[in-house]
């Protein structure tokens, strides 16, 4: 039996025809004539020593050898395409594709991007705001800002910042509810974007840590943190806000955090890129800019008591005297 591979053009013709289950549509995709495509598939069958398609009047169907061949050929061309895109990207120093969660993109990255654009006008930035963990090669992404409990990443990973949650609100609501003990009567907003963490950093956890008696009232729930922040900005209620996303708003005085108690989360942000790409010029520029922005950001937790989480009992504190 001949184990030598058939020509790449024949495998390409087979992959397209198997995907479309049509010689004419495959020929159209590959910009060849149906006769030329049929010739390529016939050469593959001669090489294999068996037919890979059953030809019918107006349709084709895969034979058993054809069905066995499809997965490997499909995956092989996908790997070739990914490798080709990766090789081309390595030559490109003028574009940078970044993926981050929608909330971090909207509330942290977007308001600061003008400074990066001013420092690096030669770099075109592209953003993919998604919670999906993207594959650097398959999804054509250069760097990712990922959030969650520290873990092994699929590449070169650098910790960026830790996070806490604390009650934030408009000044008008702070005047109506000046003390933590008044919160059981307050309109509360619920951010479910961190509900995957253990222990869960919700209002019940904050009430327990702050020693506030009573059960947190129900209120609007948001799956996206930036939507919850927008609701707090409108005065709809008091939010247990994530420091990474509300720091700028607290520094500007748009929101206030009057109670002085924060819960430290086990989750962090990490900057991740494919191993071996960390020295590319645009990635280096973005990393240095990112850390520069973090270094310049004032500490919104100054004067706050930060209660670390963890352990089977979660967050615990004493009721203010």
Task: Name the descriptors.
321 residues; alpha/beta; Arc Repressor Mutant, subunit A; D-Maltodextrin-Binding Protein, domain 2; 3 domains; 9-stranded mixed sheet; two-stranded antiparallel ribbon; 11 helices; 11 strands; 39% helix; disordered C terminus
Structural overview:
- The chain has 321 residues and is of the alpha/beta class.
- It has three domains: 8-90, Winged helix-like DNA-binding domain superfamily/Winged helix DNA-binding domain (Arc Repressor Mutant, subunit A), CATH 1.10.10; 95-161 and 270-283 and 285-293, D-Maltodextrin-Binding Protein, domain 2; 163-265 and 299-308, 3-Layer(aba) Sandwich (D-Maltodextrin-Binding Protein, domain 2), CATH 3.40.190.10.
- Helices cover 39% and strands 20% of the residues.
- The chain has eleven helices and eleven strands.
- It has helices spanning 8-20, 23-30, 34-48, 64-90, 102-109, 113-119, 171-176, 203-210, 225-233, 243-251, 281-296, and strands at residues 53-55, 60-62, 95-100, 124-129, 143-148, 156-168, 188-191, 221-222, 238-242, 261-273, 305-308.
- The strands form two sheets. Strands 3, 4, 5, 6, 7, 8, 9, 10 and 11 form a nine-stranded mixed sheet that branches. A two-stranded antiparallel sheet has the order 1-2.
- Strand 1 and strand 2 form a beta hairpin.
- Helix 1 (8-20) packs across helix 2 (23-30), helix 1 (8-20) crosses helix 3 and helix 5 (102-109) runs parallel beside helix 10 (243-251).
- The protein is elongated, with a radius of gyration of 28 Å.
- The relative contact order is 0.13.
């Amino acid at each position: 039996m001949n184990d030598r591979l058939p020509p790449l053009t024949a495998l390409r013709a087979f992959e397209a025809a198997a995907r479309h289950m049509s010689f004419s549509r495959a020929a159209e995709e590959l910009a060849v004539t149906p006769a030329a495509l049929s010739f390529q598939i016939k050469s593959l069958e001669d090489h294999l020593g068996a037919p890979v398609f059953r030809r019918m009047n107006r349709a084709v169907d895969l034979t058993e050898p054809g069905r066995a061949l499809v997965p490997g050929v499909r995956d092989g061309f996908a790997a070739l395409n990914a490798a080709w895109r990766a090789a081309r990207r390595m030559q490109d120093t003028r574009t940078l594709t970044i993926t981050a969660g929608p909330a971090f993109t909207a509330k942290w990255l977007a308001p600061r991007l003008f400074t990066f654009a001013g420092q690096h006008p030669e770099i075109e930035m592209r953003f993919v705001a998604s919670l999906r963990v993207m594959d650097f090669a398959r999804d054509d992404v250069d760097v990712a800002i990922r959030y969650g409990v520290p873990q092994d990443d699929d590449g070169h990973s650098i910790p960026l910042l830790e996070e806490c949650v604390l009650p934030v609100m408009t000044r008008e609501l702070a005047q109506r509810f000046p003390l933590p003990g008044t919160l059981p009567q307050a309109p509360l907003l619920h951010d479910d974007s961190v509900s995957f963490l253990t222990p869960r950093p919700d209002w019940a956890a904050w009430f327990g840590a702050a020693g506030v008696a009573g059960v947190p009232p129900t209120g609007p729930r948001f799956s996206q943190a930036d939507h919850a922040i927008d609701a707090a900005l409108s005065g709809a209620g008091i939010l247990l806000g994530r420091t990474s996303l509300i720091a700028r708003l607290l520094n500007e005085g748009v929101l206030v955090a009057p109670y002085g108690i924060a819960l430290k989360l086990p989750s962090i942000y990490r900057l991740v890129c494919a191993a071996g790409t960390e020295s590319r010029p645009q990635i280096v520029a973005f990393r240095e800019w990112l850390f520069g922005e973090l270094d310049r950001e004032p500490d919104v937790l100054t004067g706050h008591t930060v209660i670390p989480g963890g352990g089977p009992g979660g967050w615990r504190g004493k009721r203010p005297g």
